């Protein structure tokens, strides 16, 4: 009996679950879960076909996965890894964004040239909005009033009023826009163009182009420098931009719009996610099938972790 | 004991003095690896970054890869340079003075070897400092951890130089050393390209590289610079040091060695 308090103490001292990064593996139909403390894959979870976009509900109780070739958005219990149900998503969902109301998913349907709005509670399609050809990137403003869809072939950012669910502006960007993000409290919109090799920055109030960032990597043909996913550091001071087959991540000063650094990562770097305090960045490297961990302060790659084949999306999950 | 320490100090400091007085030698010793690092490697920057090999944990640019190899290159050239000075000493007659000192010949050679290794390590640190200024660096503690690896690699290559100098009768023959020792040793190693890359083109070349003690000296430096242990490289470099030292002792043994033929 004397050992009971000791056991209780040991249980208390036992480490709680660690923070995790969830990575979708496009060709393996799985998710690799990386433990941020050990930087190792601790779980591999099967999903629908060709998982790409991934995002957690705001309370982290469920995770949404775009299973593109299953034509579904899957809702998974992150604790058990069990698929709870599918959401109607329209055909070939690639990327999506969860509205700040934690209830509406805005999904880009690549093959149908539409953006589908799904109510995750009633599991029904609330609206389908016609956008340009091959929609891909999705973003929603912090106040939830504007949603953005980028279309790969039309080369536009489409501005959707989330109340009326109508387009209210279309703005041209460079060739094959991939990813969009609102920054600086929703006053700026950044859109990356994969083939154009640029990021276009819009003033949200007027929907006009404010700046354009071009990228170059020494000793690399410009065709291989393809900005795709990007994320912002604390305070939106710097953006880390994945440059696709150039195998580098660029560090961009979000005030001056200048490229300050290039970090070598794995092959065909695509998307990325930060840890809780944004001190570490995890990039998905499609062709080399790994995730590179970047020390944000020192702007250095620390380690590359093998995951499944063609890792695509990444999302952070705090310790439970 | 004083006799020994005086002799050791005299021989080692003579080696250092010789180096200090030849500023262009110091410059040349730094320019050579820097040209490789800043010119050659720049052209091949994108050539690597395709696979991760220990001790690296992620993808690295080519400059980072060849940094330990160039440290090895400095020690290799330094070892050979020190052997060149022995050949010179023999020609000018000051070697006779050295070898007739009333101390074991092995000790005299070892003192000379220590002096040469010390100079080599100085050059390596100067090179590492310049490389870091150009953004090609290693973990901070790695610069300390690499010291024992540099000492062993320096001793090994210095001992090789000593052994060779006992075979070379004239200064003119030293060009042969360049062709038959330095170049093959440097290019048939992991200094410029990882061994898996070599295996892709030729298994035989890969095996030759693997048997080359210089490869293991470079790997020992590489692992130490990244605070990792490589027992196999340590063993191989240690064995090669002992073997080269024994060869040098044999070469300089007046009873059996090659010096007698000269004398």
Automatic annotation (TrEMBL), chain A:
It comes from the Bacteria. Residues 1-18 form the signal peptide. It holds the Pfam family YNCE. The keyword Plastid does not apply. Keywords: Signal. Residues 12-108 form the YNCE-like beta-propeller domain. This is YVTN family beta-propeller repeat protein.
TrEMBL record, chain B:
The keyword Methyltransferase does not apply. GO terms for molecular function: ABC-type transporter activity. GO terms for cellular component: ATP-binding cassette (ABC) transporter complex. Residues 24-255 form the ABC transmembrane type-2 domain. Its main location: membrane. It is found in: Cell inner membrane; Membrane. It is a multi-pass membrane protein. The keyword Transmembrane helix applies. It comes from the Bacteria. InterPro entries: ABC2_TM, ABC2_TM_bact-type, ABC_2_transport, Alc_ABC_transptr_permease, T7SS_ABC-Transporter. Keywords: Cell membrane, Membrane, Transmembrane, Transmembrane helix, Transport. Pfam families: ABC2_membrane. The chain crosses the membrane at residues 34-53, 65-88, 109-134, 140-164, 176-196, 232-252. Belongs to the ABC-2 integral membrane protein family. NCBIfam families: phenyl_ABC_PedC. This is Transport permease protein.
């Amino acid at each position: 009996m004397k050992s009971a308090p000791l056991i209780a103490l040991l249980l208390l001292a036992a480490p709680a679950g660690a923070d995790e990064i969830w990575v979708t593996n496009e060709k393996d139909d799985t998710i690799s879960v990386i433990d941020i403390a050990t930087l190792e894959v601790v779980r591999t979870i099967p999903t629908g076909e060709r998982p790409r976009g991934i995002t957690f509900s705001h309370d982290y109780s469920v995770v949404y996965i775009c299973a593109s070739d299953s034509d579904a958005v899957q809702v998974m219990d992150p604790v058990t890894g069990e698929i709870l149900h599918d959401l109607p998503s329209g055909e070939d969902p690639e990327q999506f964004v969860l509205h700040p109301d934690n209830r509406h998913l805005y999904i880009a349907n690549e093959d149908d040239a539409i953006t589908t709005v799904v109510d995750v509670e009633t599991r029904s399609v609330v609206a389908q909005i016609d956008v340009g050809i091959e929609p891909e990137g999705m973003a929603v403003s912090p106040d939830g009033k504007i949603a953005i869809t980028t279309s790969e072939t039309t080369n536009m950012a489409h501005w959707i009023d989330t109340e009326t669910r109508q387009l209210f502006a279309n703005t041209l960007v460079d060739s094959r826009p991939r990813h969009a993000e609102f920054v600086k409290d929703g006053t700026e919109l950044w859109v990356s163009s994969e083939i154009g090799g640029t990021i276009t920055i819009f003033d949200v109030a007027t929907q006009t182009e404010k700046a354009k960032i071009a990228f170059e990597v020494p000793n690399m043909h410009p065709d291989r420098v393809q900005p795709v996913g990007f994320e912002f550091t604390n305070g939106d001071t710097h953006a880390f931009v994945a440059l696709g087959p150039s195998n580098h991540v660029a560090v961009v000063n979000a005030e001056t719009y200048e490229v300050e650094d290039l970090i070598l990562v794995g092959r065909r770097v695509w998307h990325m996610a930060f840890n809780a305090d944004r001190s570490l960045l995890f990039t998905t490297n499609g062709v080399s099938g790994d995730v590179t961990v970047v020390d944000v302060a020192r702007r250095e790659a620390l380690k590359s972790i093998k995951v499944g084949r063609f890792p695509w999306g990444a999302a952070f999950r705090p310790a439970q | 004991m004083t006799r020994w320490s005086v002799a050791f100090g005299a021989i080692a400091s003579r080696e250092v003095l010789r180096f200090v007085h030849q500023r262009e030698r110091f410059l040349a010793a730094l320019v050579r690896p820097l040209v490789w690092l800043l010119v050659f490697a720049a052209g091949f920057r994108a050539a690597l970054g395709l696979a991760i090999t220990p001790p690296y944990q992620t993808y690295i640019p080519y400059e980072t890869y060849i940094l330990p190899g160039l440290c090895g290159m400095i020690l290799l050239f330094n070892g050979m340079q020190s052997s060149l000075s022995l050949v010179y000493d023999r020609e000018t007659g000051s070697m006779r003075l050295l070898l007739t000192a009333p101390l074991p010949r092995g000790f005299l050679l070892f003192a000379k070897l220590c002096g040469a290794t010390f100079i080599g390590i100085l050059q390596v640190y100067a090179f590492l400092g310049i490389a870091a200024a150009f953004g090609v660096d290693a973990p901070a503690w790695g610069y300390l951890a690499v010291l024992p690896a540099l000492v062993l690699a320096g001793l090994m290559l210095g001992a090789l130089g000593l052994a060779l100098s006992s075979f070379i009768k004239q200064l003119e023959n030293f060009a042969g050393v360049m062709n038959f020792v330095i170049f093959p040793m440097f290019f048939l190693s992991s200094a410029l390209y990882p061994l898996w890359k070599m295996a892709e083109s030729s298994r035989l070349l890969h095996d030759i590289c693997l048997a080359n003690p210089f490869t293991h000296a470079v790997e020992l430096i590489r692992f130490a610079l990244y605070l990792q242990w490589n027992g196999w490289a340590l063993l191989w470099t240690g064995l090669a040091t002992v073997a080269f030292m024994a060869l040098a002792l044999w070469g300089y043994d007046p009873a059996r060695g090659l010096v007698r033929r000269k004398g």
